[in-house]
Write a structure and sequence with these properties.
Structural class: alpha+beta
Shape: elongated
CATH topology of the largest domain: Pseudouridine synthase
Strand content: 25-35%
Radius of gyration: 21 Å
């Protein structure tokens, strides 16, 4: 087994985020083969004895990253006191312990990422990493050039200003009369942000589908279906949020 950064090994063993693991090392609570570990050190858990406060490190859990095509009418929650259907009713063959990355509201559809890796989930939703999410919005009416420009500059909402969006018109002959399609990209995660932004420029959203998160595309995955990310997809999303050392090609 190759040498891994201690921060990564500690995080994988359940000691919080990589930053939390760094604090443990700096505080002198981590040892390797009986000696005090140093920040930035690498170790091999298969041949070396790594301990925290004298307790041997547990074997790292296998992490998983999946995608789900969420249909309308499912709640993004582990359970619902009102008995409504949740996304976990759809995850029949997925591994246990998957947590959703961000949310889609009850009516919204499309790509939802899920992972057992807490640090990855944290980074994908943290504003610092500016992970772009792309939606197709069916709206009432035709958005004017002025409305699109307002969205591109950023819209004032009741909980603060929404960051500038990427917006373009789409053409689809299947769209009902009186409605139109927009592709909308945002890099924040405010509650119902796309719907509220479009309402602010005078357009009700009649259907909203998320088609991409951080370069990972929904593609042809059917509604209600799920699958693990490919190795290339997982590497791409980890690199996006700094969980891959680009100079060495290894996960951090």
């Amino acid at each position: 087994m190759p040498l891994e950064r201690l921060q990564k090994l500690l995080a994988a063993a359940g000691y919080g985020s990589r930053r939390s693991a760094e604090t443990l090392i700096v505080d002198g609570r981590v040892t390797v083969d009986g000696r005090r570990a140093t920040l930035g050190e690498r170790a091999d858990p298969a041949s070396q004895r790594i301990a925290v406060d004298g307790r041997p490190l547990a074997p790292p859990a296998v992490t998983a990253v999946w995608m789900l095509h969420k249909p309308s009418g499912y709640l993004v929650s582990a359970k619902d006191p009102h008995g409504r259907r949740t996304i976990y009713d759809l995850l029949h063959s997925a591994p246990r312990g998957l947590r959703y990355v961000g949310r889609l509201d009850w009516e919204s559809e499309g790509l939802l990422l899920l992972t057992t890796d807490g640090e990855l989930a944290h980074r994908l939703t943290h504003p610092r990493y500016e992970v772009w999410k792309t939606y197709v919005a069916e709206i009432e009416g035709e958005a004017s050039a002025e409305a699109l420009e307002r969205l591109r500059r950023g819209i004032e909402l009741d909980d603060g200003r929404a960051a500038p969006a990427r917006v373009e018109r789409l053409q689809d002959p299947r769209v009902p009369p009186g409605r139109s399609l927009l592709r909308v990209g945002i890099r924040e995660g405010k509650n119902r942000e796309v719907r509220r932004m479009l309402a602010a420029v005078g357009h009700e959203v009649t259907r909203l589908i998320r088609i991409e998160v951080g370069g990972i595309r929904l593609g042809e995955l059917p509604p209600g279906a799920s699958r693990p990310l490919t190795a290339a997809e997982e590497a791409r999303v980890r690199a996006l949020v700094g969980l891959v050392d680009a100079t060495e090609g290894v996960s951090l």
